[in-house]
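Quick one, tokens below. Sequence please?
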């Protein structure tokens, strides 16, 4: 049974699954009734170094940059509608390939052109992030975003990291950004020039 996380909570995935080396973060959401204009939510990963910024622009993994330079983080593809059951988008993290200078991997979801379309997470329901062990397909941890984020067009869902003891951990973040993808990416040190 998966550990259910609350905002700010964390769990050792290594204790849940000894020998863990690779996980997939499944992200899902539903769009509430809207004015009929399509919502396109996108998952992304920021590979953060010791400076608390991305190691390089290539360490921002999303629909236009599907794989990190070392192949440790891979974007699973763009679902433009969020329709259907199960995960809408996925990001795979292979800790065996992840370089030692990586402090953490932030997993975010943004609303494509959210500010321009006046769309935000207030119109999104049932949003979640779940961590799956790639070795056996078992869900290890889940974070259901329940709080109202009605002004935010971007959300950091979870972060994954290695503890000082070498354990792989996940922490529930649930932090919103009104400025959408551009503001979030800029805040993480991505050069959007």
């Amino acid at each position: 049974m998966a550990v259910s996380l609350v905002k700010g909570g964390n769990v050792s995935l290594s204790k849940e699954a000894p020998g863990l080396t690779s996980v997939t973060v499944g992200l899902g959401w539903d769009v509430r009734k809207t004015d009929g204009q399509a919502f396109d939510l996108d998952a992304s990963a920021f590979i953060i170094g010791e400076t608390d910024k991305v190691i390089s622009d290539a360490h921002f993994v999303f629909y236009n940059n599907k794989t990190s330079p070392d192949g440790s983080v891979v974007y699973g593809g763009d679902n433009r509608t969020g329709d259907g059951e199960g995960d809408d988008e996925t990001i795979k993290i292979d800790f065996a390939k992840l370089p030692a200078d990586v402090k953490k991997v932030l997993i975010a979801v943004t609303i494509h052109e959210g500010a321009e379309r006046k769309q935000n997470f207030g119109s999104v329901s049932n949003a979640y992030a779940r961590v799956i062990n790639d070795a056996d397909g078992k869900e290890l941890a889940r974070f259901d975003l329940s709080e109202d984020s009605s002004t935010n067009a971007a959300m950091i869902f979870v972060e994954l990291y290695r503890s000082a003891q070498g354990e792989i951990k996940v922490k529930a973040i649930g932090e919103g950004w009104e400025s959408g993808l551009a503001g979030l990416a800029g805040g993480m040190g991505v050069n959007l020039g």
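The chain has three helices and twelve strands. The chain has a mean pLDDT of 89.
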